[in-house]
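Propose amino acids for all 672 sites.
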């Protein structure tokens, strides 16, 4: 039943706004912070509801609605590459009726009663698009935003069985899923545990992180695997069905999943889904569902695609696994910004192949809304590899021993008064010297997003803070190594490694340095904006709130936070301290690859705004004008180019498409 169907416009408008905010929030948590606060199922349900509202009232669609884009995994470090054919995402379903509906829709679209499907395991990994041009593997693109991805070719090449050359000419795109199998995942985590470092949350995160490593030798150690299962553009391959394509893949040397199956109809699809729902735990890799595709390519073409999803394919997601257990206590965690997060301590219970001891409770509002009490029996849910959630309380099982939970008035770590700021749900410890906050800040400062000090893991940070060795960031650079050697489990070799990685971290780009400082609300994006708009950290600490406000993308709240941070005398002293220890450099200032070259742009670029593209040209020493003249060196042509294109041809100007443009500006970044 469509909820939106019975809503009047005003309520629908309100609801849509509410859904957009929620989805954007969870998206940010997932993509930026790496935290899944809700299950995939809950997320998809919100997305579906929003889609339905927007279908009923198209005037509710706003350009930045989460329905209007697909998730992106683009990072700055890799050259960008366009997919020849977009990598669409596949729609999800959760039950038999949805599958029947999918089948009925295809029957109508194709005007046929009988057609075959191919069923495949939905591997919980990272999608990759191998691009072959004239027989040779030239790019390996991550999905990115579906149009443009990161080229991680050198890392993909570490997988020993990837064909580097094929007999087929022209352009061929072969798509697959990269993953790390469960045994290797466990081995890597064992090693992490031994070294006193934080373990990886799940194989998919580890895979995604591995693909983005800058050192292919490290990638090789991680043993990536891949199953291939789809074609993108296919110039010279004469193949008519998915099944034939799988056979071709195997014969050509592309690794495929042996469990895929061609079936006659949707009933057989359903049997396949049920079969693997039962058997999935026997596999040495994680699957979270089944992908169903029309077998015949001509039917696929006929069914077509929406902007985001192909109509000829769908994913059946296994239901989340649930269990009932006792909630024994609610503990408070204090984060680096002082936010207090309640966490449920559970009587250990086995769920989805792991032992679950804790579940996230998000905040006090959530606890009140679900009326969760200590000693309650609770239904918990875990889907895929995300943090378990408390679905609801089993109230019938209450026996009077339950206790209502309230947020503490004092910080459980440092005993300072806790405050609840009006417009926030969050409760905070306001003591800047709170050990929990110091630990959190230093952990972040040395993390991959900060100074990236490889051999200073979280356990050591915690230990050093507890011992009083680390109080502030700059203490890292005055560590007494002779003293550290005496620590249990430390030893000469570890100290030596630590010394080396600290030394290595002393050269740092401005954006990374700003991010490392952990200024509230700033984050990676804010740090990058600051680095782009100021020449040095000195300029930033001298700037005022209004200067920050002038930067596009920085709002009042963030500007206030930065200004407050740099005005604080303690912070200022610490920044000055760090500046004298570190070499902080602004990115790309020395590289003048486009010195004196005149650029003109026409048409729209997929990967960035015109303004951004012009800025990139300027950063590299070039400049741009609006019209073609005898002085023009390069015309960059986007989609729907104007008359400049014909003019440029007459004047013998170099013409670059977007792909070429991206290659030029990115090949440059590699040299930095
Ligand atoms: Zn505290």
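Proposal:
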């Amino acid at each position: 039943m469509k909820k939106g169907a019975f809503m009047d416009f005003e309520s629908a408008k309100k609801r849509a706004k509410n859904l957009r905010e929620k989805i954007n929030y969870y998206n940010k948590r997932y993509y930026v912070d790496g935290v899944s606060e809700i299950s995939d199922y809950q997320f998809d349900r919100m997305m579906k509801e929003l889609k339905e509202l927007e279908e009923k009232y198209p005037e509710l669609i706003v350009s930045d609605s989460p329905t209007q884009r697909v998730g992106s995994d683009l990072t700055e470090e890799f050259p960008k590459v366009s997919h020849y054919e977009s990598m669409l995402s596949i729609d999800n379903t959760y039950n038999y009726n949805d599958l029947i509906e999918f089948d009925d829709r295809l029957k109508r679209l194709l005007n046929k009663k009988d057609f075959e499907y191919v069923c495949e395991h939905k591997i919980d990994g990272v999608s990759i698009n191998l691009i072959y041009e004239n027989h040779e593997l030239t790019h390996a693109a991550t999905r990115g935003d579906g149009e443009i991805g990161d080229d991680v070719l050198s890392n993909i090449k570490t997988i020993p069985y990837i064909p580097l050359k094929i007999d087929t000419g022209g352009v061929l795109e072969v798509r697959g899923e990269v993953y790390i199998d469960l045994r290797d995942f466990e081995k890597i985590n064992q090693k992490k545990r031994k070294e006193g470092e934080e373990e990886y949350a799940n194989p998919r995160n580890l895979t995604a992180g591995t693909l983005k490593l800058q050192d292919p030798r490290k990638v090789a150690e991680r043993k990536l695997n891949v199953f291939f299962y789809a074609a993108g553009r296919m110039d010279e391959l004469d193949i008519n069905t998915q099944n034939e394509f799988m056979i071709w893949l195997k014969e050509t040397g592309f690794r495929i999943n042996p469990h895929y199956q061609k079936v006659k109809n949707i009933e057989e699809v359903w049997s396949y889904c049920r079969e693997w729902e039962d058997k999935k735990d026997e596999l040495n890799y994680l699957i979270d569902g089944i992908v169903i595709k029309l077998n015949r390519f001509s039917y696929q073409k006929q069914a077509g695609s929406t902007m985001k999803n192909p109509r000829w394919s769908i994913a059946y997601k296994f239901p989340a696994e649930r269990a009932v257990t006792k909630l024994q206590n609610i503990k408070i965690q204090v984060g680096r910004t002082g936010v207090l997060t309640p966490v449920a301590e559970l009587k250990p219970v086995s769920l989805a192949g792991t032992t679950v001891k804790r579940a996230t409770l998000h905040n006090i509002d959530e606890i009140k809304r679900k009326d969760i009490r200590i000693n309650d029996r609770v239904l918990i849910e875990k889907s895929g590899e995300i943090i378990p959630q408390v679905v609801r309380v089993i109230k019938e099982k209450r026996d009077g021993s339950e206790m209502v939970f309230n947020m503490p008035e004092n910080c459980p770590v440092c005993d300072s008064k806790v405050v609840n700021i009006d417009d926030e749900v969050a409760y905070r410890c306001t003591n800047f010297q709170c050990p929990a906050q110091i630990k959190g800040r230093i952990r972040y400062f040395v993390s991959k997003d900060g100074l990236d000090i490889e051999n200073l893991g979280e356990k050591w940070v915690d230990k050093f803070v507890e011992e009083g060795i680390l109080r502030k960031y700059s203490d890292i650079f005055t560590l007494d190594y002779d003293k550290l050697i005496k620590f249990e489990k430390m030893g000469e070799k570890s100290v030596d490694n630590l010394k080396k990685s600290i030394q290595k971290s002393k050269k740092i780009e401005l954006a990374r340095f700003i991010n490392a400082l952990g200024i509230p609300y700033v984050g990676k994006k804010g740090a990058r904006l600051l680095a782009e708009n100021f020449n040095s950290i000195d300029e930033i600490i001298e700037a005022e709130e209004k200067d920050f406000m002038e930067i596009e993308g920085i709002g009042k709240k963030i500007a206030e936070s930065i200004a407050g941070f740099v005005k604080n005398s303690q912070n200022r002293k610490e920044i000055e301290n760090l500046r004298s220890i570190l070499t902080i450099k602004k990115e790309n200032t020395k590289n003048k690859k486009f010195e004196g070259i005149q650029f003109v742009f026409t048409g729209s670029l997929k990967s960035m705004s015109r303004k951004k593209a012009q800025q990139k040209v300027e950063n590299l020493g070039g400049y741009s004008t609006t019209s073609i003249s005898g002085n023009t060196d390069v015309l960059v042509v986007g989609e729907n180019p104007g008359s400049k294109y014909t003019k440029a041809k007459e004047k013998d100007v170099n013409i670059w498409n977007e792909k070429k443009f991206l290659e030029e500006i990115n090949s440059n970044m590699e040299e930095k």
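Residues 80-317 form a domain with the D-amino Acid Aminotransferase; Chain A, domain 1 fold (CATH 3.30.470.30). The two ends are 56 Å apart (CA to CA).
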